[in-house]
Amino acid sequence: MQGVPSSFLAAFFFLSCFICLYPPDLAMAKHAATGVTRHYKFNIRMQNVTRLCQSKSIITVNGKFPGPRIIAREGDRLVIKVVNHVPNNISIHWHGIRQLRSGWADGPAYITQCPIQTGQSYVYNFTISGQRGTLWYHAHVSWIRSTLYGPIVILPRRNTSYPFLKPYKEVPIIFGEWWKADTEAVINQALQTGAGPNNSDAYTINGLPGPLYNCSSPKETFRLKVKPGKTYLLRLINAALNDELFFKITNHTFTVVDADASYVKPFETDTIFITPGQTSNVLLKTKNLTSNTRFFMAARPYSTAASGTFDNTTVAGVLEYNSNNTPLSNNSTKGLALPPLPAINATSYVAIWTNKLRSLGNSQFPVNVPQTVENNYFFTVGLGSDPCPKNQTCQGPNGTKFAASVNNVSFTLPTTALLQARYFGNSKGVFSTNFPSFPLNKFNYTGTPPNNTMVSHGTKVVVLPYNTTVELVMQGTSILGAENHPLHLHGFNFYVVGQGTGNFNSSTDPAKYNLVDPVERNTVGVPSGGWVAVRFRADNPGVWFMHCHIEIHLSWGLRLAWAVMDGKLPNQKLPPPPSDLPKC
């Protein structure tokens, strides 16, 4: 290379070697103005995994269960090539990532993309804007997320710090659910018969069921090894399919500092409540112990479901103190006391706990809750039923099939992606824009349910002009049993401005809203037998899924989509789709 200094060539050669030697699923590339571009490769493939004395072949990322950790900083760009080597269709959602003007990378099948077919690939390309904390990724087609999930760790920008004491160590803790059976067979059977699905066989911590389950080997217990007198940051993720969870460590307390990758005013608690889809960063300060000691950590479900059974078991892991630098002699958990967890149906406990969450709200991390509202919506969320097809016996309520709906509309997934249809103006026959803003038939939502519990069906979206402010009240119903429904909105965070029990009162309840420091989330529980109110600004053009994160409710139709229109300026419009966008 004539005219190029030898020092430059040496540096170039060194950098090339560094990139070659770096692991393929985390290669940092060129610097951008605000961060770096990080390249990952996700090979979706089958992997034999043994749990509870039974082996089965599961769908994984790069053969790992749970999947590999994604690490980035606020402002970084992620370029993730997903290659599908399994027989199933695949799509991956980057749960909680705002996806500002990158809706083509959001991931839910038939909403923002057609799934990646066997032998095909797709590159998810997005920038992390204004977010730091813990998020996660998971498959977003059928029930494949039961094994295809992993953490997204977003560190603060370089040369900036946490708004709390820097932890000694950071540890992702992912709660999951394990079935001995094939989960695709489980959901297919449930949808065929109209009944509730077969329960999972265990809950897991980082993919491990722990010692309380029959036939669990010592290797199947998660062990967190700690030193005395140190502060650990636990990055909690609830990746379970169908269950909200309480989590506790015997004789220890946590300081909650973050919810859904948004900082909160720190508060102490000995118990964490976390719904499917939610994440939370909590600080654990270890005790000043002088001897090696073990404590149980445990999680079990919160449920008020009257509809069918649920997995009423407890997953345990072990907190291990290495106080005198000599390893513990064995892996025994004999004699360890389980931490006392709230009652299974502790609805009032959940309400008190969630009301403690408040945005940090300082000059560096301000609260931008809309003070005025241009678009008001009132959505009932809950279960319902479908008639049994002729010449079939159904196992749902009174011989029907279970269903679920928003404003009595059970969402039908299209066969082509909504975002594509909308972008190219081909919405006719794909979706309609007449989703009801309010229930068409009013009733005593949390009282005695109506006799007719049948739902309607359709692929209907809510259209929002760009940058309008939205208030959405979500009202739980008692139809086929009152339950807590964790609602997740793609493409946005929202502020949780109010919640309460019973039926929402539009005359008196808004006066009690918190418009000063409400918590900012992407997933919120609609309380069992109650309501929740959220506000957000529609500043992200695209088509955005909103659904219950209890997977069976999603499968039954508790889902809808918001279509946010382009703004007038170039930076307020959705760019064209990438050339490798999968085809249906």
Verbal overview:
It catalyses: 4 hydroquinone + O2 = 4 benzosemiquinone + 2 H2O. It holds the Pfam family Cu-oxidase_2. By secondary structure, this protein is mainly beta. The protein has 3 domains: 33-160, Cupredoxins -  blue copper proteins (Immunoglobulin-like), CATH 2.60.40.420; 164-325 and 343-359, Sandwich (Immunoglobulin-like), CATH 2.60.40.420; 375-572, Immunoglobulin-like (Sandwich). Helix content is 8%, strand content 37%. It is built from 5 helices and 33 strands. It has a 6-stranded mixed sheet with strand order 11-10-13-18-15-16, with no helix packed on it. A 6-stranded mixed sheet has the order 22-21-26-31-28-29. A hairpin with a 4-residue loop joins β1 (27-31) and β2 (36-51). The longest helix has 16 residues, at 6-21. It is globular and about 70 Å long. 48% of the residues are buried. Mean pLDDT is 93; it is low at 1-33.
- By CATH's scheme, which homologous superfamily of the largest domain applies? Cupredoxins -  blue copper proteins
Q: CATH topology of the largest domain, anyone?
A: Immunoglobulin-like
Q: How much of the sequence is in beta strands?
A: 35-45%
How many individual domains?
3
DSSP, total strands: 33
User: Strand arrangement, largest sheet?
Assistant: 11-10-13-18-15-16
Q: In CATH, what is the class of the largest domain?
A: Mainly Beta
How far apart lie the N and C ends? Answer: 47 Å
Share in helix? under 10%
Based on secondary structure, the structural category is mainly beta
- Overall body shape: globular
Q: Please tally the helical runs, counting DSSP H or I stretches of 4 or more residues.
A: 5
- How would you characterize the largest beta sheet? 6 strands, mixed
CATH architecture type of the largest domain: Sandwich
Low-confidence stretches: 1-33
- Gyration radius (Cα, Å) is 24 Å
What value does the average pLDDT take? 93
Multimeric organization? single chain
